[in-house]
Specification:
heterodimer, A: 154 residues, alpha+beta, Jelly Rolls, globular, B: 271 residues, alpha/beta, Elongation Factor Tu (Ef-tu), domain 3, Rossmann fold, seven-stranded mixed β-sheet, six-stranded antiparallel β-barrel, 32% strand
Chain lengths: 154, 271
Amino acid sequence: MESIEETLAATRMFHNLTPEQLSGVAQLGEEVEFTDRARLMTEGEPAESFYLIREGFVALQTEAPTGAITIETLHGGDPVGWSWLFEPHLAHFDARSRGVTYAVRFDGASLRERCVQDPGLGYELMRSFASVIVERLDATRLQLLDVYGRVNGG
Amino acid sequence: MTPRAHRVVSRRRETADTWTLALESLPGQKLPLFAPGQFGMLYKFGVGEVPISVSGASTALDPLRCTVRAVGSVSSALAATAPGDLVGLRGPYGSRWPLAEAVAGDVVIVAGGLGLAPLRPAIHHLLAHRNEYERVIVSYGGRSADEMLFVPELEEWRGRFDLDVDVIVDIAGPDWHGKVGVVTKLVELAAFDPNNTIAMMCGPEVMLRFAALTLRSRGVPKERIYISMERNMHCAVAQCGHCQFGPMFVCREGPVQRYDVVEPWLRVQEL
């Protein structure tokens, strides 16, 4: 498997980082592997890290009286978790792997500290996460429109 | 303009409200030849007529297949038609998918909900002429797992090594273990050469606009994106004006059109 730095270099959200910034972020990453249905995050629990999926996919879920509801699935190249960026750093949803999943785990506290030391890195990371958040907001809006449910009679 | 009677030979349930009818011609008559993308006007005698997606073009061996969602009085009556009954059929009408233009390149099929029906003959053509195309990708989004069309065939397609098929649903039940989200996600994930790709899309118009945006952000030029439009086709011969869409009649210039041609009109309200 490719190195963490190579994974980051191939991931769209890290494209604007300089080689030095990329290398610095890669040093904070740790390769992780999840078996099927392993829990990456738990709603309401501290979320002091985020994951970058390399292979496999992850379901974002919330518990309902009828069981877990999957809101969205995330795939190779997607980050999982942004609560590490925002206080109080608590996960908003459960995240579970679907099948064997490979990812890179980043320690949020260390990354925040590095962003304080290098505001340029902080700006680029914030921009990247904002872009991901906007994409997911757009997707959620589309889901809420329920476009497949609207059909004209005839 | 006069509907010709055809016999329904089978009726298959696709979802709770959607059925596929197989039609054969009456003795001494030939089945009309529909090119992938073209539509027909299906007539339930004594009830009325509606435009219907041809989901399986007729061949020497196969009947013509039409997929009908029961949403109004005519489509409900058609969907309830029993094998052996007669229905009227006019057509083929309209434009076709750009299968000749796509030769030697990648093909990205993006379908949403019932939109898979008019794309199915195009997929059959691509598979029948598989050596003429590079990568063939089918991205299908639905509201939920039980509202997806042609599920056994989707499963068969997913088993092929020369076809990339991926599905995603808006709403996942506990039994769904696949992807959840909108179909644009599949377009983001798909591997194709944007400079040598033709995209063919059918589904709700909002979905088409967002999928086109995603394709463009991947680098696919607007003029290589084709959509099939649903409009209120009545006469199907560009006389009544019901399907007028800006300067065009969808029944004549459509339903398949290049995205750069129709895009300015897609956001005009009440058009």
